[in-house]
Design goal:
A seven-stranded mixed beta sheet has the order 1-6-3-2-7-4-5. Helix 1 runs antiparallel to helix 2, helix 4 packs across helix 5 and helix 5 runs antiparallel to helix 6. The termini are far apart. 48% of the residues lie in helices and 19% in strands. By secondary structure, it is of the alpha+beta class. It folds into two domains: 33 residues; 140 residues, no CATH class. The protein is elongated and about 90 Å long.
């Protein structure tokens, strides 16, 4: 039996066929595959395809970094909306810990100030806005409720993956829009265990880190936070 003609196969198809062919049952086909693949290597086609794949992958990565850089200003607007948190702020604690309520209110006010400042920095494309923005968003990642503690900190948008302990452990996803809120409660609370991870906050943190990575054409050592490389 004549071996199959593999001259029309792509390199990926040749490799897939070579990996799946039974050399004992079809030795001629295996030899033809090996010969065709070696011919592609000798002609430089394999190297050219690898280079093209690398260029395509790098182009996609560069497009993603450009998108992340462009998203910074929108993240800045989001963070500057943090004063909405004051519309829905609350603390619930035993009276013996009443002083802690004032501390938490102070924390809330500080949070709003830092968030607004970080948002302004991002909006104005300033490098100093990056770290405080990361810190503000990191505080929004965890949402915890249990029999003795409640903690929640959001700014307008939240999307949670959570684990809850009721009759048994349950996993789920929840998403909602709200005006933002800060919750801290301590003591004997009628709350079942619920631990959520805010995917919106994690996504925004990822965008901020991705937006700081250099683009092609950026010179070594320049401020990669800028939208355009320095002249």
């Amino acid at each position: 039996m004549m071996p199959h003609d593999y001259s029309t196969y792509t390199i990926a198809e040749l490799r897939e066929a070579l990996a799946s062919v039974d050399g004992n049952q079809y030795p001629d086909n295996k030899a033809a595959l090996e010969a065709e693949l070696q011919a592609r290597v000798d002609s430089g086609e394999v190297e050219r395809e690898m280079e093209e794949q690398e260029r395509e992958t790098r182009s996609q990565e560069q497009d993603l970094r450009r998108f992340a850089r462009g998203a910074r200003q929108w993240i800045g607007l989001y963070l500057m909306g943090a004063p909405l948190i004051l519309l829905n702020m609350g603390t619930q604690m035993p009276k013996s810990l009443g002083w802690l309520a004032y501390a938490l209110w102070g924390f809330g006010v500080l949070y709003v100030g830092v968030s607004t400042l970080a948002g302004y920095g991002l909006w104005k494309q300033k490098d100093w806005g990056h770290r405080p923005a990361i810190g503000v968003l990191a505080l929004q990642v965890i949402n915890l409720q249990s029999g003795f503690l409640q903690y929640s900190l959001t700014s307008a948008i939240s999307g949670y993956v959570y684990v809850a302990a009721q009759a048994g452990f349950e996993f789920g996803v929840s998403a909602f829009l709200n005006t933002g809120g800060f919750r801290f409660a301590a003591g004997d609370l009628p709350l079942t265990f619920n631990l959520g991870v805010n995917l919106v906050a994690l996504f925004l943190i990822w965008l901020l880190f991705k937006g700081r990575q250099p683009l092609d054409g950026d010179e070594a050592g320049i401020d990669t936070y800028r939208s355009e490389p320095a002249e």
